[in-house]
């Protein structure tokens, strides 16, 4: 799909439109999201299917001063310490996936005007994850479940529901594994029990117009390469 034809603003009329036009947003307006809109999105997302109806998710929606303080604390942790996620981040990928990941990074840095060799600029760009890219609301997904493949599938399904429902409401999102990098910071800020693992998070808000980063629509492999009909 031609990125020049993609509109990420305004509500969508169908699931197909939400799916085809949604992509990660990395620049947001400061405009707050009405609480009624947030409730609509997340209450609908609770209909997401899960293994034997286990519903392994807890959802923490943070806005206002609480969000700003958490952004400062996470950014400080990212500057001063090593990530300590409670989930195992992947360490190896098939060669074709590595190429897609490298190409994506090169394109994003290019759109952001960052030279690939400029480590300081890349680090500063990475730190924007922990300030939620300026979004008015941050969301953290946690679970008390023992983490396994099927719990991961359930959580992924839930996050996808949120992404599409947010797009339906005219909002942009960016799902972020990085927001699970410093679970103790999140746990302390949100007063979570120790057994509640911080899995990941996402930024959500109104996309900033006229943003080159927001117009960047990531490519996909062709259906011919990935689909088989029998």
TrEMBL record:
Keywords: Flavoprotein, FMN, Oxidoreductase. Gene3D superfamilies: NADH Oxidase. InterPro entries: Nitroreductase, Nitroreductase-like. One of its GO terms (molecular function) is oxidoreductase activity. Residues 20-206 form the Nitroreductase domain. Its cofactor is FMN. Belongs to the nitroreductase family. This is Nitroreductase family protein. It comes from Leptospira terpstrae serovar Hualin str. LT 11-33 = ATCC 700639.
């Amino acid at each position: 799909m031609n990125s020049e034809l993609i509109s990420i603003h305004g509500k969508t009329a169908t699931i197909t439109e939400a799916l085809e036009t949604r992509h990660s947003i990395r620049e947001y307006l400061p405009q707050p999201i009405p609480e009624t809109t947030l409730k609509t999105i997340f209450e609908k997302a609770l209909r997401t299917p899960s293994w034997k109806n286990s519903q392994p998710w807890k959802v923490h929606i943070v806005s206002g001063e609480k969000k700003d303080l958490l952004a400062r604390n996470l950014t400080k942790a990212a500057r001063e310490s090593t990530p300590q996620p409670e989930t195992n981040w992947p360490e190896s990928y098939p060669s074709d996936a590595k190429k897609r990941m490298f190409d994506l990074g090169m394109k994003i840095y290019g759109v952001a005007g960052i030279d690939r060799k400029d480590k300081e600029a890349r680090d500063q760009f990475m730190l924007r994850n922990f300030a939620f890219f300026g979004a008015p609301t941050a969301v953290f997904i946690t679970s008390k479940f023992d983490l396994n493949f099927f719990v991961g599938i359930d959580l992924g399904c839930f996050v996808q529901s949120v992404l599409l429902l947010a797009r339906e409401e005219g909002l942009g999102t960016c799902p972020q594994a990085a927001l699970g990098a410093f679970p103790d910071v999140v746990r302390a800020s949100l007063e979570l029990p120790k057994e509640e693992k911080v899995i990941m998070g996402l930024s959500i808000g109104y996309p900033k117009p006229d943003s080159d980063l927001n117009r960047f629509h990531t490519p996909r492999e062709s259906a011919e390469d990935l689909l088989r009909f029998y």
